[in-house]
Amino acid sequence: DPLKRFANKLAPYWRGILARVRWPLHTGQLEGINNRIKVMKRMAYGYRDSEFFFLKIKAAFHGNP
User: Fold this and answer.
1) CB burial class (10 A; 0-12, 13-18, 19+) of residue 40?
2) Total domains, the chain
3) HSE, side-chain direction, 13 A CA sphere, residue 38
4) Which element (helix H / strand E) includes 53?
5) Which ranges carry the Transposase IS204/IS1001/IS1096/IS1165 DDE domain (predicted)?
6) Which helix (H) or strand (E) holds 63?
7) 17 Cβ partners below 8 Å, 6+ apart?
8) Burial class of residue 44 (count of CB atoms within 10 Å of its CB; 0-12, 13-18, 19+)
């Protein structure tokens, strides 16, 4: 049965497929978020505590979990 063969081929990838459905972010968007965090990290060099740095990240990406 072709449908069963197709389902068996997808079986190893089910976690990735479900993750894509749950979090509909494209890799380009994720790369943009990572880039912004890296820039903020360079700018934050010398901060006394990491709590302030994480607050800055949360403020930059409000509305996102």
Assistant:
1) middle
2) 1
3) 6
4) helix 50-60
5) 2-57
6) none
7) 10
8) middle
Structure confidence by residue, pLDDT tens digits, 5-61? 999 999 999 999 998 888 877 888 889 989 999 998 888 887 778 888 888 888 888
Q: Which helix (H) or strand (E) holds 27?
A: helix 27-43
Domain of residue 23 covers: 2-60
**Whole-number Å distance between alpha carbons of 44 and 56:** 9
Q: Is 65 part of a structural domain of the chain?
A: no
For the chain, helix (H) and strand (E) counts, in that order, are 4, 0
For residues 50 and 38, the answer to whether their CB atoms sit within 8 Å is: no
Residue at 20 is within a domain: yes
Structure tokens at 15: 């976690």
Rounded Cα–Cα distance for residues 28 and 33 (Å): 9
